[in-house]
Design a protein that fits this description.
Strand 2, helix 5 (100-103) and strand 3 (115-116) form a beta-alpha-beta unit. The longest helix is centred in the N-terminal third of the chain and has 24 residues, at 40-63. 38% of the residues lie in helices and 18% in strands. It has helices spanning 6-20, 23-32, 40-63, 83-88, 100-103, 144-153, 181-197, 214-223, 250-254; strands at residues 71-75, 92-97, 115-116, 129-135, 155-166, 227-234, 257-264. It is α/β, with parallel strands linked by helices. The protein has a single domain, classed as 3-Layer(aba) Sandwich (Rossmann fold). The chain has nine helices and seven strands; from the N terminus they run αααβαβαββαβααβαβ.
Length: 265
């Protein structure tokens, strides 16, 4: 398959989604973040709908086809918030989740559909799915690029991998511990949270939360032997802010959440 400059490939893959990436969308999604733990439905339902629209746009841009009739594996699918949104798009949705308590955290029937398994060793055969997607999971995995390799492995040639993750030095890198990791480090921010709230944070640095950077994801995507990098952009930013990904150091703070789009070759 011919290799074109990244900017040319990105334009083709993201044309449809770029029209959706407006400032109004950014404000709406970022406003929902405050409900992530207090009212998960108010956060995850609109995020799921937006994610399905994003994946459908990216799949159309990369392959010329929507999600209808295609199989999508969601690595770290949790309790199935994304299930309805992807099914409405006509996709066969298969979440993979290692934690049984997460799988049953919401009253969604995923019987016969969900797979319990690790993202770093997906229990799926090579080249089995049309789209492999992961949303805000890589920062919770000690070996995120092993997970990324697995996502490419299970994707069919010509299919796409969409990996989206939160950057450590971005405003949401510390998750519920806020931005205290800037001054106290991950451990210090966790200790502060415990003192103030009387219990450990849900996302414990070094155990269920890790420092993952923009440069690392770009390096993996550009060197993946079975993947062609089609696009890299900030997930929640309007289109005019996407060039931030090309600015070293600044991108680690301002991109916040990086989306990598690869075609399996």
């Amino acid at each position: 398959m011919p290799r074109f400059p990244l900017r040319t490939r990105a334009s083709a893959a993201t044309t449809l989604f770029a029209r959706r990436a407006t400032l109004r969308r950014s404000v709406r999604l970022l406003g929902a973040f405050r409900f992530e733990q207090s009212d998960p439905d108010s956060f995850y339902v609109p995020l799921a709908r937006d994610s399905a629209e994003m994946i459908d746009d990216l799949h159309r841009g990369a392959t010329g086809r929507g999600l209808d009739g295609h199989t999508i594996v969601d690595v770290g699918g949790g309790p199935g918030y994304f299930a309805d949104a992807f099914r409405e798009a006509g996709a066969r949705y298969v979440p993979v989740e290692p934690d049984p308590s997460e799988m049953h955290a919401r009253d969604i029937d995923l019987t016969g559909v969900a797979i319990r398994g690790s993202g770093t060793a997906l229990p799926i055969r090579d080249g089995a799915v049309d789209v492999c997607f992961s949303s805000n999971v890589a920062e919770h995995v000690a070996q995120p690029w092993q997970m990324a390799d697995e996502m490419l492995r299970v994707t069919k040639p010509g299919g796409i991998v969409v990996l989206s993750y939160t950057l450590w030095w971005g405003p949401f890198g510390g998750h519920e511990t806020g931005m205290w990791h800037y001054v106290l480090g991950g451990e210090g921010a966790a200790r502060r949270y415990r003192r103030r709230h009387g219990h450990e944070p849900k996302n414990r640095f070094g155990a269920s939360l890790f420092a993952v950077h923009c440069r690392d994801g770009l390096a993996w995507a550009r060197s993946a032997p079975s993947g062609e990098l089609l696009a890299a952009f900030p997930r929640y930013h309007p289109r005019w802010a996407w060039p931030l990904v090309r600015v070293p150091l600044l991108r680690e703070v301002l991109v916040s959440n990086l989306v990598l789009v690869l075609r399996k070759v």
